[in-house]
Structures are given as C-alpha cells and as structure tokens.
Write a structure and sequence with these properties.
By secondary structure, this protein is α/β, with parallel strands linked by helices. The protein folds into two domains: 7-127 and 283-304, Rossmann fold (3-Layer(aba) Sandwich), CATH 3.40.50.720; 129-272 and 312-326, Dihydrodipicolinate Reductase, domain 2. 36% of the residues lie in helices and 24% in strands. It has 14 helices and 14 strands. It has helices at residues 18-27, 41-51, 60-66, 81-90, 105-118, 132-142, 159-162, 169-173, 175-178, 181-184, 186-191, 283-296, 307-321, 323-326; strands at residues 7-12, 31-37, 56-57, 71-74, 95-98, 122-125, 149-154, 194-202, 211-218, 223-229, 238-243, 247-252, 257-262, 268-271. Strands 8-9-10-7-11-12-13-14 form an eight-stranded mixed sheet. A six-stranded parallel sheet has the order 3-2-1-4-5-6, sandwiched between helices. Strand 1 (7-12), helix 1 and strand 2 (31-37) form a beta-alpha-beta unit. The protein is globular and about 60 Å long. The termini are far apart.
C-alpha cells in the first residue's frame, strides 16, 4: 500500500513560534508547506527567504481565495488566534492552533462549538503532552498502578511583561493562559479530568494577582496540586511530579527528561528521543497526530488536545487563578 499524500499546509503567522514549527513540518514526510501568510510584509518576506517557501500572502482573504492547501497552522498572536482559527474552522479547513486557543475560555468554547457544528478537524498545540520522554515515563508509571497524586509547578517571571514589553497588558495579566497553560495542562494529561478546584489567589508584586496555589480533586479520586508564582526570579520554572502508590515520576532538566522511581527497583531515566532531540520537543509528535487525522479523516485522539479538551483545561485554569472574577473578558 502506498503512503498517503503529504498534507499541504498553509502557515499563518511567520514570527517567533513559526520558526520552530517550520523546521518540523519540513522534516516530516507527512507534510508539505504550501504557503505562508502574514500581515507583516517584512516578517513574511524574511521567513519566506529563510525557509525557501513560496507563495506568500499578506491576508487571510487572499490565502483562502487561493485555496491550494489541505490544512492551516494558525501561529498568530495570542489576541488574534481565536478569530483567525474560527474563520478556517467554519470554512471546513483542518486547523492546527498554537496555544492558547483564545485568551479566554469563552473564545475556546466558541471554537469548540464551531468544530461541533462543522465537523472540521482541529487540534491545539499543547506540545508538552508529546515530549517523548514524558510519554515514555507516563506509560511506565501507569504500569505500576493508578495515579493517585499529581503536582505541577508553573512558575514564571512576568514582571518584564509589565515593563514596556511587547505584550499588551491584557496578555500580561493572563499569562497563565498565554504561556503557563503548557505546564498547567499537564495536570489533566497526567491526572485526567478534574472534578473540583480549591484555590488561594494572592497579589505579591505585580499589577494583578500573581500567586496561585490550588488543590484539585480528580474524577478518579486522585489529588492534584498546582502552584504558579509569577513574581521574583524564575526559580524552578515548570516541573511536574506524578505518583502511584509505589512509584513517582519526576521531571528533570527543564522537562527534557524525567525519572521514574519504583519502590525496590533502580531508578529509570527517560530522555528525549527521535526528532525531539534536534527540533522543538513535542512539535514532531503533535504535528504527526494532526497530520494523521487530516490524512485519514479520523478524529484526533488522546493525547492530542481537541478544542473540547482545551476548554476543560482553560476552565480548570479559570478556577486555579480566579481570573473570571478579577479579569473577565472586556466587552466588545
């Protein structure tokens, strides 16, 4: 049986994170980068020359009118991602969205509704779920029994985002969604769906609450702990720990490895493998999952985050940070 044709992907947004996605797409036999699109003509031209990609388009209207692609990668700014993604989802075009899928849960719910109404394939880029070390470590941990506790630290240095940075205050205020979502989503990847959240929210040094500590109860009966301090130095950054009754899996080296310790056995270390070792970790796995769904017409499946799945993560973060109370979505 011959291999399916590569998926012709149009990449919308050519700055920052696009520079990580494009090498992955160019390395995967399942993908062909068919076009680039960006309203920033300089960034568009630079990325086109850097990666040798033509044609280029300066608007989504022009790209959509051209139409010679099978799927889109939406890699635009946090404040624009939901609007751009909804356009292509409602047009029935398979859509990959970089995180977050909207800065507010209501944005993500709107996108999820569009997927349900149209049946369009869509997937969110929460790439930590696809770190090869974490996937191997999680599988080995589950072989020791049911997970009974998960602890995640999502500590960040956010003061620069308030001090004349490139991020608007709305994004700085919701940094738990703009970036910490990567770590906080691991609470659900490792522990499953959350039944309840009890949180303590404090304001220590920034113009908004910047310290979040939460206790979670999973539907399975397991317990989760979430900590996200956004003041002071970076400290430990992002890390996780998951336990069964007889074993513990702990991240190391900025999530690029993890160690499984089982009572009575020698510890086992899991490192990045395959393309994760030379490209952005997790990006090859998540793109393979999305491209496979496009090629087969089958829905994306765990660990790939659907938009309904992303809604559950966003709402969990709402409860951890209390953001719906102190930073609701501005009226439009």
């Amino acid at each position: 049986m011959s291999a399916p044709n590569p998926v012709r992907c149009a990449v919308i947004g050519t700055k920052n994170i696009a520079g990580q996605h494009l090498p992955v797409l160019q390395a995967l036999p399942e993908a062909e980068v068919a076009a680039l699109c960006d309203i920033d003509a300089q960034a568009l031209d630079e990325t086109s020359r850097r990666f040798g990609i033509e044609p280029t388009f300066k608007s989504a209207d022009d790209l959509q009118a051209w139409g010679e692609f099978d799927a889109v990668y939406v890699l635009v700014s946090v404040l624009a991602v939901a609007e751009v993604a909804e356009r292509f989802i409602r047009a029935g075009i398979p859509t990959f969205l970089e995180k977050p899928p909207g800065l507010y849960s209501s944005d993500t719910e709107r996108l999820a509704a569009a997927v349900r109404e149209t049946g369009t394939t869509a997937m969110v880029g929460l790439n930590r779920r696809f770190y090869t070390c974490l996937q191997a470590g999680r599988e080995a941990l589950l072989n020791t029994g049911d997970i009974v506790s998960v602890t995640v630290h999502a500590d960040e240095v956010t003061a620069p985002h308030w001090e004349g940075s490139k991020f608007p205050p709305e994004v700085a205020a919701r940094w738990a969604y703009a970036n910490s979502i990567h770590a906080l989503d691991l609470l659900r990847y490792l522990g499953g769906d959350v039944a309840s959240v009890t949180s303590l929210v404090r304001q220590r040094g920034l113009p908004k609450p910047d310290s979040f500590s939460a206790l979670l109860e999973y539907e399975s009966g397991a317990v989760g702990r979430a900590v996200s301090d956004q003041f002071g130095p970076k400290g430990t950054g992002h890390f996780y720990e998951a336990r069964t009754r007889n074993a513990v899996l702990t991240s190391r080296s900025g999530l690029s490895s993890c160690v499984l310790e089982v009572r009575g056995r020698e510890a086992v270390r899991f490192d990045l493998t395959g393309l994760d070792r030379r490209l952005k970790p997790g990006f090859p796995g998540e793109s393979r999952a999305f491209l496979r769904a496009v090629q087969t017409g089958e829905p994306v499946s765990f660990p790939a985050p659907t938009l309904d799945d992303a809604v559950r993560t966003m709402k969990m973060i709402d409860e951890i940070t209390g953001a719906e109370e102190w930073a609701p979505k501005p009226a439009t």
